[in-house]
């Protein structure tokens, strides 16, 4: 049993006490998000016992096959967060258009974006999956918000977090004041603060990338990975370890726990499809970049800081490199060196 029994609810109320003029709306919104994640966690835990595994037989806006749990988790998130009057609208990886709060509910001043089930290709093989979310302030028309209202830089996020449905269920959040991790105590149904002030070591000898795409990568990414793979005998003079879970939530959580670099880089396959990356800026890259930076790490496309990108569309995709600062900076420097060479 963990000695520290601060619940997530207590933690949020304590944080609220330090914000002059706070109304409690934000705390209440986060409580609803936490409830949604508990519901999804329960379904993930029960798996086939609840009949929730397998394909839904539909495609999402990204052209990806939807799993039943993608669809159900999306619905859980909408229903749990629409009623309380804290939100002006929501946007999800699984829905083409913005979801307005139904007219019979009061409207609020926040916008919520989410990836209801991240890593869903792992669900049928019982490997960790998660939920990623981000909260923005509604600055424009909060009665009928449009996609435009969501197109705010990552630096504007009020809060970002993820739930990890792994051997234990965890919730990791930042409100711009460090990163804290909570573990779900299934016996009492509460998240307990177990990982206060999570920080990412600056240096690492572990990287995560889908190496099956190697032949499509740009030269700087290929160079970085080849140098890592060359190990002690190569230019890095050290042996590196490689991981690929194919659930970004699980990869980011490993990095928050013991450091490392994660990348889903731009490649020739994406170029051929007219895409700028694989991962979604609003639902995956921005929330994770906020968390990683708050934990002392860095997050870049290779050419720009992720949090500085001005989004151009709701479902925009970007290349992602995140994790231990020194490694992210090294890979970004390789991009700069390559681009200078191209320009010369
Ligand atoms: O199957 P690939 O190409 O290795 O891609 C895996 C990546 O795609 C994602 O699964 C995308 O998330 P979704 O399951 O929400 O679509 C990331 O979590 C992961 O890093
Ligand atoms: Mg995802
Ligand atoms: Mg998803």
Automatic annotation (TrEMBL):
CDD domains, sorted: FBPase (cd00354)
Record-annotated Fructose-1-6-bisphosphatase class I N-terminal domain positions: 7-196
Cellular compartment(s): Cytoplasm
The UniProt record lists the keyword S-adenosyl-L-methionine: no
Cofactor annotation comment: Binds 2 magnesium ions per subunit.
Gene Ontology molecular function: fructose 1,6-bisphosphate 1-phosphatase activity; magnesium ion binding
Annotated keywords: Carbohydrate metabolism, Cytoplasm, Hydrolase, Magnesium, Metal-binding
Pfam families in alphabetical order: FBPase (PF00316), FBPase_C (PF18913)
GO CC annotation terms, alphabetical: cytosol
EC number: 3.1.3.11
Subunit relationships: Homotetramer.
Family: Belongs to the FBPase class 1 family.
Protein name: Fructose-1,6-bisphosphatase class 1
Gene assigned in the entry: fbp
């Amino acid at each position: 049993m963990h000695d520290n029994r601060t619940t997530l609810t207590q933690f949020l109320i304590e944080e609220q006490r330090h914000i002059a003029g706070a109304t409690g709306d934000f705390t209440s919104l986060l409580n609803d998000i936490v409830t949604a994640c508990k519901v999804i966690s329960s379904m993930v835990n029960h798996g086939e016992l609840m009949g929730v595994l397998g394909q839904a037989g539909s495609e999402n806006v990204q052209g990806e096959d939807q799993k039943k749990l993608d669809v159900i988790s999306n619905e859980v998130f909408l229903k749990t967060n629409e009623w309380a009057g804290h939100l002006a609208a929501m946007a999800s990886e699984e829905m083409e258009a913005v979801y307005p709060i139904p007219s019979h509910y009061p409207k609020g001043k926040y916008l919520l974006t989410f990836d209801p089930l991240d890593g869903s290709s792992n669900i049928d093989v019982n490997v960790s999956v998660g939920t990623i979310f981000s909260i923005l302030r509604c600055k424009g028309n909060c009665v009928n918000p449009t996609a435009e209202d969501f197109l705010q830089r990552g630096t504007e996020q009020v809060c970002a977090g993820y739930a990890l449905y792994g051997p234990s269920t965890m919730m990791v959040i930042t409100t711009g004041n460090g990163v804290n991790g909570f573990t779900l105590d299934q016996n009492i149904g509460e998240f307990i603060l177990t990982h206060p002030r999570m920080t990412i070591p600056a240096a690492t000898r572990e990287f995560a990338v889908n190496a099956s795409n190697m032949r499509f990568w740009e030269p700087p990414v290929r160079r970085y990975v080849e140098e890592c793979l060359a190990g002690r005998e190569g230019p890095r003079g050290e042996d590196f370890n490689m991981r690929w879970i194919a659930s970004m939530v699980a990869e980011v959580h490993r990095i928050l726990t013991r450091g490392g670099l994660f990348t889903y880089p731009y490649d020739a396959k994406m170029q051929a499809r007219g895409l700028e990356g694989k991962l979604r800026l609003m639902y995956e890259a921005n929330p994770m970049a906020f968390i990683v930076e708050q934990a002392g790490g860095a997050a870049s496309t290779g050419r720009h800081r992720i949090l500085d990108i001005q989004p151009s569309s709701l479902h925009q995709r970007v290349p992602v490199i995140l994790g231990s600062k020194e490694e992210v900076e090294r890979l970004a420097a390789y991009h700069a060196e390559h681009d200078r060479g191209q320009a010369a």
